[in-house]
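Archive entry: two folds, one per protein. Generate the first.
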Amino acid sequence: MKENPTGGNKYRQPEVNIGLTGHVDHGKSTIVEALTGKWPATHSEELRRGITIKLGYANADFRRCSNGHYSTNVKCPYCGLETKLLRRVSFVDCPGHESLMAIMLAGATLMDGAILVVAADEPCPQPQTREHLAALMISGIKDIVVAQNKIELVTDDKAVENFKQIKEMIEGVGLKDVPIVPISALHKANLDVLIQEIERKIPTPRRNPEVDPLMHVARSFDVNRPGTKPENLKGGVIGGSVVQGEFIVGDEIEIKPGIVLNGKYKTLKTKIVEIRSEKYRIEKAKPGGLVAFQTKLDPSLTKADNLMGCVVGHSGKLPPIWEELELETFLFEEVVGLVEKLKVEPIREGEDIMITAGTATTLGKVGKVARGKINVKLWLPICAQTNKRVAIGRRLKGRWRLIGYGTILER
């Protein structure tokens, strides 16, 4: 990876994470490419199948010229004037396929706002459109802009009909002042209006750099090439988004729940050797964008996303590890993600459910059930704060479907 050609002080880490969510094949990745020039699906299996499997990240500079035109270019593509940088944003591209819902839920944890992508050439809502909208609501994300994509494929009347369907869906979940922007990502049409609405609707959250830092691990890997000599090996790398506070190079960090040793989870402690944002070295990592920490860990511990779902913080400052949860549950009236309407039945004692907390997903066996509260024994432990919302899924028709959420109660 290259050094920052402009110097460490001039590189700007993104200020805000904006999710791209919606039904499979509605053009989320195409929108990211149109705005950033980067195709977010970089894994070979994603490219082969043409869908997003893992979370994809790409950054863009939002700019505006003195004539009020929005773009991502230094020179305005509409009038040729120089543009002023408004802020740097990071797009989190989430998978739309129904079998990858857990990864989408993990992505929602890292978002400050979201673009819900709806294709104009299909009836709205599609199953995963409803499911992703529900996931955003569970995650507490209400700063949403709808991109009505693929308008080049439909007539004006069809576009208006689809627009009304989108509006009805949005209002049906109690959201207000959600802009719906017709665009063609393929032809890069109306992207200026989309940027303008994002600037209006999705502000950069206020951050407190003094709080104890936390990062959710979305990926972990070994950067060493096969055949690297032992003396040249680099420590394991963990990647994700900082959700609060700030990390600096040299910090002693703790990683929970950690790794399995002799059948039990062991918390890891290590040191940050280097921090990267995009391809650049930075001295400090704060909320916004994807960052990667090179550590002193044995790279065998971090390879193949081994630590995905963990939480990183300063030693002794992390939330507790849970092997068993007490949850206050809030279930939907209907299962989302299915074409047909299916009522959500109450959670039963003894059934298996899926729990997603942050970037961690695990199954659990339900124990005692009483008055909207359940006890769940987890198959894999998670690290999470008390009162944190977790998504609850149930296996229906061969897939895990989102049926509601729960709030972690104190022990």
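Generate the second and append.
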Amino acid sequence: MKVLNKLFGSFYNAFFSSIRIERIWKLAEVDFKKRYYNDKLGLLWALINPLIQISIYYLVFVLIIKYDKVENYALFLFSGILIWMTFTESSKKGIMLIKNKRYLIENIQFNKLDLFYSQTISIFIGFIFNICAYVALSYIMGIPLGLNALYFPILIINLFFICLGAALILSVIQIYLKDIIHIWNLFLLLGFWTSGIFFRGQAFIELFPPILYINPFIGLIINSRKVMLDNEPPDFMMLAYNMVFGIVVCIIGAFLFNRNWQKAIENF
């Protein structure tokens, strides 16, 4: 019993201590304010960026290409672009996080993983703001959310795991491969067009079934549209796989980072 108490006590102190949670939140708050509050339009930039992208792609696909196979295409685009933009921002910021936060690492004693937790949280604050805009737009268009939207927080947690894990892994790769940012931009471009953002993800699965397991964003975006746009329950098999994928990526990322972060400081 004493051994178990000690074990769970150590676990609590490592992951759920109030001091650590407060520190992570404060870092996230500072990072979020730094990104938006110094600009004249402030938080509105978090909304303007995806809206401009959606408007451009809607113009191209609906008015020029005459793509009409998907109903409520504006919301269809909105949901996919928001998820992909969140991942893109999180992963690219993760590559340079150690370099940008080196002053904190060198001068303050704390768990270095907290920097990645706080940065991902700050990005997701903007993501939640955009989700609120999506909900408002859906009501304006006469497509209110149904009860199945209650599944969406699970998908947000899944996305958080994937974003966090990718940021950790990329930060370690950056230590040994300085050009990773250019290589990663190519992967992001490929993912952007093969994640079902503009077309239904089922079409990619029919053409190449293994892509569902290679690219978790196909499943994430499909399930997001099911619960938010179509008011249907998610594909639970797809959801389970994506959740396991996200957790595994996080574990691998944390393991690699804990073994290599000191080397990163030496190299920068």
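Annotation attached to the second fold: Residues 157 and 226 are 17 Å apart (CA to CA). Confidence is low (pLDDT under 50) at residues 1-14.
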